[in-house]
């Protein structure tokens, strides 16, 4: 169970980094702002990690 939870989080963070970088690049081009790879990646990964685990926690509480 713990291994599956860890792998799900890794996959979620990986895809969040990819989507965050793409969306950040497009948004920075549209707004004519500088593109910061590290900052966008950290924010996207952290947001996805919190959202995924928050949804999992809420769904566990509502089942019981």
Walk me through the structure:
With 64 residues, the protein is mainly α. The chain has one domain (2-63). The protein contains two helices and no strands. It has helices at 2-31, 37-63. Helix 1 (2-31) packs across helix 2 (37-63). The radius of gyration is 15 Å and the shape is elongated. The relative contact order is 0.15.
Short summary:
By secondary structure, the chain is mainly α. The chain contains two helices and no strands. It has one domain (2-63).
Provide key terms for this protein.
64 residues, mainly alpha, 2 helices, 89% helix, elongated, transmembrane helix, membrane
Order of helices and strands: HH
Major beta-sheet overview: none
Roughly how many Å is the radius of gyration? 15 Å
Distance between the termini: 18 Å
The secondary structure category is mainly alpha
Mean pLDDT, to the nearest integer, reads 89
Total number of β-strand segments?
0
Give the low-pLDDT segments. none
Number of domains: 1
Shape: elongated
Number of helices: 2
Mind sketching the topology for me?
Layout lengths: L1 H30 L5 H27 L1
């Amino acid at each position: 169970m713990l291994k599956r939870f860890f792998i799900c989080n890794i996959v979620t963070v990986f895809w969040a980094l990819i989507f965050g970088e793409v969306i950040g690049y497009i948004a920075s081009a549209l707004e004519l702002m500088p593109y910061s790879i590290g900052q966008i990646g950290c924010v996207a990964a952290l947001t996805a990690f919190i959202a995924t685990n928050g949804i999992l926690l809420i769904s566990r509480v509502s089942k019981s």
